[in-house]
């Protein structure tokens, strides 16, 4: 039901007419035709990831064609390139294309090569290491480094992935809460000028995801220990008393909690030590978001804040954003994976 609602409302051909393409409309209901339409590259990556989740759950030829069309649509809409200024954007798309495999079509290998090469270029020793958030900037953050580490580990580049994950653990973990802070500002001499202390939900998820990948591939106990520590910190210092993760409004923030649910489900399925705690958070969120849904034309609408009832979509309402609806869909796919696994 979540998939049908998002696909019916948001998935369209580019400009409504370009054959062999799909792209995610960023809002529903649509704004007035005169309103500017921003390009949210990384939302499309998570739309692709959700469609792959659905294909793994219940394979369909129609959806398989739509996955390939969405990959083509992203490149076409992005002026024929897989890349932009933001290292986090391209890492997210790389993860989705990597998961898509042959469904991404002949362009998949070229996309992954371009993205992984650019991620290598983003690493410098300034700030002790790490990948920049975007080119020509002074900021290094968890949302760029976490997905990059996951992608590179899955690509067989474990040494580089481990260096990124170690930098995150050494630089971004808050010593008081054990949670991952947003990032650091790097001075021109390479020293850390300031730490951005904000605790965003998806920073925890990508740190966990990198640790889970490396615990399997690298085998060093530090990654298992870090994965256990971050799930414990999320349980006691981030989730509410029911185990529900907080939301971050609409816009980009709409994706944050859903991303973390994805990597919690991965952790539950791949690390027996985390199965109970990670499953509880995912299940609590899925129960809350489903019980709090709004039923409108075309199916459910999910809340931007899983712990409260959803508002009906409209101008200025976060539930209007594709990001928020993808997050709810992503959460339910994560819960379904855990249920299928028992």
From TrEMBL:
Pfam families: Glyco_hydro_76. SUPFAM superfamilies: Six-hairpin glycosidases. Keywords: Hydrolase. GO terms for molecular function: hydrolase activity. The keyword DNA damage does not apply. It comes from the Bacteria. This is Glycoside hydrolase.
